[in-house]
Design a protein that fits this description.
6 helices; single chain
C-alpha cells in the first residue's frame, strides 16, 4: 500500500498477527464460528500481503489479479453463507472491498500500481462509502469491547483454552481499523 514505510510495516504486522489469531481460533471453535474464523484468517493474511511496503517488495503485475481472484472467491463464499446470518454480511463487504482495492492498485488502473507515486485512485464515492462503513464498524466493535459487569457465576480471567468472544471481537476490530487505513491510502 502507499504511505510511509513504517506505517506499512505496522499494518502488515498487525494484519498478520490478527490472521494468526483468527487461525488459532479455528482450533477451539466449531460450526459457524469456525467458518467465520477461517474467513477472518484469510482476510488477515491477505491484508498483510497487500500491506507489504513497496520499499521492501514490489509485487509483480499479476499479483493484483491473484488478490482479486482470492478475495472474489472469499466474497462468493461469504455470499453463500449470508443466509446463515451472523457476521457473513460483513465478510462479504470486506471481501468485495479487498477486490476493489486489488483492482484499484493494479498497474494501469489509474494511478500506476503499488510502486508508483501515490495519487488518487478508485472511485471516490465508493471509497468514501467503504470508509464510512468501516468507521462505523470500528466504533461499534470498540463499543462492544468496553467491559461490562460480569454475570453472576461467569468464569473469570478468559485465559482458558475454550472460545473467547472478546478475542474474536478484538481481531475483528483490528482488521476493521487496518481496512480503514488501507482504504485511506487509495
Amino acid at each position: 500500500m502507499h504511505g510511509p514505510a513504517l506505517s506499512g510495516w505496522l499494518l502488515m504486522v498487525l494484519c498478520a498477527v490478527a490472521g494468526a489469531s483468527c487461525l488459532s481460533r479455528t482450533r477451539v471453535t466449531t460450526g459457524e464460528e469456525r467458518r467465520a474464523a477461517r474467513a477472518e484468517a484469510v482476510m488477515g493474511f491477505g491484508m498483510a500481503a497487500m500491506a507489504v511496503p513497496a520499499a521492501l517488495l514490489t509485487p509483480p503485475s499479476w499479483a493484483w489479479a491473484v488478490y482479486a481472484v482470492l478475495f472474489g472467491g472469499a466474497a462468493l463464499q461469504a455470499l453463500r453463507s449470508v443466509r446463515f446470518g451472523g457476521h457473513h454480511l460483513h465478510h462479504l463487504v470486506g471481501s468485495l472491498a479487498m477486490v476493489y482495492m486489488a483492482v484499484t492498485m493494479a498497474p494501469g488502473a489509474g494511478h500506476g500500481g503499488h510502486g508508483a507515486t501515490p495519487s488518487a485512485g478508485g472511485i471516490p464515492l465508493l471509497t468514501g462509502l467503504l470508509l464510512a462503513y468501516y468507521a462505523f464498524y470500528v466504533l461499534r466493535s470498540a463499543g462492544r469491547l468496553i467491559p461490562v459487569a460480569a454475570a453472576a457465576g461467569a468464569p473469570g480471567g478468559g485465559l482458558g483454552r475454550g472460545p473467547q468472544p472478546e478475542l474474536a471481537l478484538a481481531c475483528r476490530l483490528t482488521m476493521g481499523i487496518a481496512m480503514f487505513a488501507m482504504l485511506l491510502t487509495l
